[in-house]
């Protein structure tokens, strides 16, 4: 009888250990999102960015990415170079204005933006939706998604891989990706499959068909406040 009780006890202990181990592994493994889910994550945290002339018409357009609930945002510098007035058009059609450039690096093609307070813009919960920043360097062949606004009311998503996480292009380090990029997507997010911002769309590589340039997270973080690092 004692032998049977001991055997049952050992089996129960083994099952409990397996269940505990499985639960721990699941909790520590980040979620993986497909293209539809990734679009849902990014859609509320990016905006159509308009650089305005004195008459209110747009001199250039691109895409902006929100990085914090308070309204820190980013885009590609070439979109906002020389801008005096800017506004953002959110996914729901609401206008975010005025937008200010707080820091930039022309060589890296990065600009950090400041949006008006979320309360002033009547954002839900007095906070902007935002994208978390990826900490790890991307790897060759990793799946990624590119998003942005080629048209005012039309955000799109494309899917590809990381061709290389670091290529020296005109004296700048760039991520190269096969995720397609259209005019107007500059400044938009490159997402990894965990819903994290992995880079900022910068442009296309003319010497290679269907290979596109992305600013890496190190270059973005170099301009962000210490709270992001």
Automatic annotation (TrEMBL):
<dbReference type="InterPro" id="IPR001940">
    <property type="entry name" value="Peptidase_S1C"/>
</dbReference>
<dbReference type="InterPro" id="IPR009003">
    <property type="entry name" value="Peptidase_S1_PA"/>
</dbReference>
<keyword id="KW-0645">Protease</keyword>
<feature type="signal peptide">
    <location>
        <begin position="1"/>
        <end position="27"/>
    </location>
</feature>
<dbReference type="GO" id="GO:0006508">
    <property type="term" value="P:proteolysis"/>
</dbReference>
<keyword id="KW-0378">Hydrolase</keyword>
<protein>
    <recommendedName>
        <fullName>Serine protease</fullName>
    </recommendedName>
</protein>
<dbReference type="GO" id="GO:0004252">
    <property type="term" value="F:serine-type endopeptidase activity"/>
</dbReference>
<keyword id="KW-0732">Signal</keyword>
<keyword id="KW-0720">Serine protease</keyword>
<dbReference type="Pfam" id="PF13365">
    <property type="entry name" value="Trypsin_2"/>
</dbReference>
